[in-house]
Design goal:
Elements (H helix, E strand, L loop, with lengths): L1 H20 L1 H4 L2 E7 L6 E10 L8 E9 L7 E4 L2 E4 L3 E5 L6 E7 L3 E10 L11 E8 L18 E5 L12 E4 L4 E5 L3 H21 L1
Antiparallel strand pairs: 1-8, 1-12, 2-7, 2-9, 3-6, 3-8, 4-7, 5-6, 9-10, 10-11
Helix pairs in contact: 1-3
């Protein structure tokens, strides 16, 4: 009986650790979904990651991966610190004042991808110089903005990353959707899924023994 109780407590503790302590970690990777069913046949998505103050904002990057609904053969135009590919993932740095990945897409369905923030995001001076990741949707000519955004510049989503002001401090990105067609959700870290599975198995085992 004592062993069963201990295993049950261990499982509960594992679940609590997943949901209680991994929230900040989960926010470092975000999943974005854009419903383009009202956009027409084809157009462009503009992915930008720009600093509030070039050369002063902490050097960080965003990695775009997990693409769904994108074609590897589609034309791509880049500016600033952009590298990678659709298959391997694109990396956009914030070292220049303007860093852009202009990607041709076929509209009509739902486009998905994930955004992962990386880098030493610490500013011990306390200056509020963060960076912003944003996505814009354009028509086939690449001139007219789509998506009925409420943002002044027409972006569908914006994810702001404020710098940490102390070593070891975790400052999760702040996501905002400016259109009904775009959603943003947190993606749990792999370690969180592993701990969740272990906790669930322990709880299931304890329940069977009690039965």
């Amino acid at each position: 009986m004592l062993v069963t109780i201990l295993k049950l407590r261990t499982g509960v503790a594992a679940l609590a650790l997943v949901f209680g302590s991994s929230a900040a970690l989960a926010d470092s990777t975000l999943a974005v979904s854009i419903d383009t069913s009202s956009f027409g046949d084809a157009g462009w998505l503009d992915f930008q990651y720009n600093p509030a103050n070039p050369g002063v904002s902490p050097a960080t990057t965003v990695t775009l991966s997990g693409f769904e609904g994108f074609s590897a053969a589609a034309p791509v135009e880049t500016a600033g610190q952009v590298s990678g590919s659709l298959a391997a993932g694109y990396v956009i740095g914030n070292g220049n004042s303007w860093n852009s990945l202009f990607h041709a897409v076929d509209y009509g369905g739902i486009l998905r991808f994930t955004v992962t923030f990386s880098g030493d995001n610490v500013d011990l001076s306390g200056g509020a110089y963060g960076s912003r990741f944003a996505v814009f949707a354009y028509d086939a000519a690449g001139t007219a903005l789509l998506g009925n955004s409420t943002a002044d510049d027409g972006r569908l989503i914006g994810i702001d990353l404020a710098p940490a002001t102390a070593i070891g401090e975790v400052v999760p990105p702040t996501p905002i959707s400016y259109s009904d067609v775009a959603t943003i959700s947190a993606v749990p870290e792999p370690s969180s899924w592993l701990m969740l599975g272990v906790g669930a198995m322990l709880l299931a085992g304890a329940a069977r023994r009690r039965a």
